Amino acid sequence: MQFVLLGEVRAWRGEEPLQLGPPQRRAVLAALLLRAGAAVTAAELVEGIWGERPVPRAVAALRTHVGQLRRILEPDRVAHGPSTVLVSIGDGYALRIPPESTDVAQVERLVAVAGQVRDREPAVARANLVAALGKWQGAALSGLPGPFAQRQRSRLEQWQLAILEDRLALDIETRRSSDAVVELAALIAEHPLRERFRSLLMAALYNCGRQSDALDAYAQARQALVDGVGVEPGPELTAVHERILRGAMPVIAVPRAPTEPVPAQLPPDIADFTGRERLVDELAAQLTGAGSAVAISAVGGMGGVGKTTLALHVAHRVRDRFPDGQLYANLHGVDPLPTPPGAVLGGFLRALGTAEGDIPSTVDERAAELRTRLSGKRILMVLDNARDYAQVAPLLAGPAVLITSRSALTELPAVTRTRLDVLETAEAIALLVHILGADRVAAEAESAREVVAHCGLLPLAVRIVGARLAVRPQWTIASFADRLADEQSRLNVLRTGDLAVEAVFRLGYRQLTEPQATAFRTLALAEVPDLSIDAIAAILGISPLDAEEVCESLVDLSLLETTARGRYRFHDLLRLFARGVADEDESAVLVRVLDYHLASAKNLLSAIDYSNTTRLLVPTTVPGRAFDSGSDGQAWNDIERPVIIALHQQAARIGGRALDVAADLAWVMAELMDAGTGARELSRALESLLDTAIIEDNLAAERRIRTALGALLQVGLGEVEASLPHLRAVSGPPANDADRRLSVLASVLLGVAARRLGDADVSHRHFEHATDLTRALGDRSMEAWCLALVTRTYCEAGQYDEAVQMAQRAIALARESSNPVALGWATHELAATLSMRGEHRRAIELGTDAVRAAQHNGVRLWEGWARTRLAQIHLQAGNVAEAEIHAAGALQLLTKAADPIDRARAMALHAAALAARGRRERAEQEFGEAAEIFRRAGLSPPTIDRLFGPGAE
């Protein structure tokens, strides 16, 4: 740890600033630090902070401050365990820290060294004093209350002036008299009664050949002393005056222009730098490219991602291309008090050899002076940890500048930006190998992969894990992976010594405005892979435009990531941190995001004119996403499916109101039948949701979830037998219209299952039950859908006349109720039936119309079914080429839609077309694959000869 007393009292653990708390707590710390390890009694501390009349509970307040300081200084200390840093001695305390942990101790060492070498190496002595004075960052103990701070503040100020006097004397001895004259003039104006400044000014003027000015300076000094305090000049001032009058002052010759210093301020390169080869090459090329303009490269990214490490590695890589030096400054951009640009400019000018008195007072003048100094020189500047454009803009000078910042610095012109992402898995493993050794990592390779995954591939987190394991050889990597697996404690595990992931994140969080902080905390409560702008607006209760603005600002600050236009996500560890600081109820946020997705799903059903199911669902409070077409809705469904799966998982954990909304969302998505990719993951999420409904005795939610799960198992996964218990549980006596509508879907699926299992009579009974329920509901649209499905059962049973009659009834009802989906289904089932009766021309016309209708609806599953029927019709008519084309199209659509059984039917059709065209080997291979899918589904595979004939399937 390092402590600053010569300015505002601050502390760091490594590069991480410590939050020391209110002024009184910092005053306690300062008092202990200035005693340099000696004990300070409670009475001394109380008097030093509260004065002679302390507040009634001053001792209790002191104990509280000490307890808080112990937590800050010793974060790894076991609760109630003995302190090894801030120790108790009697009724007082002492700090046990290494020598030179404070800037005061460092100044003492530098002054001592200067005193030791002054006579034989005055230039070295001067350099030490310059370094000592550089430790002051304003008034010592700035802002601290109490008599002790006031006394020490005065003492340290006098000490600073005494060191400055010694340095000015060395300025004169080392032939810098002209610089000293300028600086001393300003100092005398500020301290007119300080005689040594006056005597040093006289000596400096004399050595510049300005004897008369030196004598005038004495006269002015005498007048100031007499008028100010009524005394004559002291012995030192008088002696200098007399030596000048006698001509006995030693004259130091004015030297030739000194060689300008070559700054080399880069911190060391990191020995185990890993990966990033392409980025290193790109940044090196940007900084060393030819051109007269300043080459500015900015590296952005979240805290802990390795921006500083990368920047320093690149800077060391190219340092030989900058022979005039390298300037470096840590701008402390995420600290509560970032480094002011003026202070950075002053430091750079000093490093370039500018005398203290020649450094301008304003930021603009300092910036202009820096540009002058760097003109024509090959100097690299590294500005680390920048806060914003205002902090960086005055510092830009020289041929090449490399900046790191969590902010995007969007206002910065003519800059090449690099967004630093987390490591690749192989790079993270390589970093672990650098720290732990190849043998140890290789022995637990799988656990090592788990560890870096739990670290979110964040370099800081991986480095912390490596550091903890390196000093604990008895620990296995697997045991650490187990500790990291617990999300609740993961951030606490990711800390060691001066490094902590949570502390790095907290620095960025403290920069946020209230709207940014609210969004950051609240959005993290939705445990989803990412979120759309519309969903975010619904969660935050703001407009989409405002939602985009706040999200983009969080992206600029590297606290949120954008995955695509209008979609945002958290890094896993940042999400854990944000959830830790959240102040809103998780359930309320979950309900809002579920509400948005349910409203959007309702809109999707309406867009394809599918059914009137939406009137039976729970009311929604937001408009949801609007859709221009079914294909637009299909694209939304594909994008949002991983989000919906995650929402179901979270609702299963939370229960309550979230369970009701999630159950309705599951029902709506089941109506569409298209599980797409992730069908298995969706089934697991629905099973968890069902368990919660059963535990909470929520029968309404249970019926909805069983319906959705049954549909998914049968259609999406082809697990017919597994779907039956869920569907049978729903098809019982309904209690209300919602139950009736659920029973319609369950009965239809049971009818399809019975048909697939070869039991036409049972299939008819289920379809009749579904039809009766639609009539009880007065839902002629759904009745048309049921009749279309019954058509297929008749057709596959060889009852072609009955199938035609049923299809014609379904078509009439679909037209009457304006249901294009049922109309399309009924049309392609009628076409297939006519084909089986040998009416191929009419069948092809109707089948083609059905495909066009399905394309218009935009749901690929339905188009896949229609194309399968059209392929069958062409094959039946002997149009082998057309059959192959449509079967291939159906196969592609049904693969994306995750309908394995109908995909196998399309594959078998395609195989039949291939066989008819003489491609027997490929046909046998595809038909074998199709047969295997049927077998896995518990169904008898059809033969090519009787693929769609009576009793097929």
Task: Give the SSE map.
Elements: E1 2-4, E2 10-13, E3 16-17, H1 23-34, H2 42-50, H3 58-73, E4 86-89, E5 92-95, H4 103-117, H5 122-133, H6 147-173, H7 177-190, H8 195-207, H9 211-229, H10 235-246, H11 277-288, E6 295-300, H12 307-318, E7 326-330, H13 341-351, H14 363-374, E8 380-386, H15 389-392, E9 400-405, E10 415-419, H16 425-436, H17 438-443, H18 445-454, H19 459-470, H20 477-485, H21 490-493, E11 495-496, E12 499-500, H22 501-509, H23 514-523, E13 531-532, H24 533-540, H25 544-556, E14 561-564, E15 567-569, H26 572-581, H27 586-607, H28 630-654, H29 657-672, H30 679-695, H31 699-716, H32 720-730, H33 737-756, H34 760-777, H35 780-796, H36 800-816, H37 820-836, H38 840-857, H39 860-876, H40 880-896, H41 900-916, H42 920-936
Parallel strand pairs: 6-9, 6-10, 7-8, 8-9
Antiparallel strand pairs: 1-2, 2-3, 4-5, 11-12, 13-15, 14-15
Helix pairs in contact: 1-3, 4-5, 5-6, 6-7, 6-8, 7-8, 8-9, 8-10, 9-10, 11-12, 13-14, 16-18, 16-19, 18-20, 23-25, 24-25, 24-27, 27-28, 27-29, 28-29, 28-30, 29-30, 29-31, 30-31, 31-32, 31-33, 32-33, 33-34, 33-35, 34-35, 35-36, 35-37, 36-37, 37-38, 37-39, 38-39, 39-40, 39-41, 40-41, 41-42
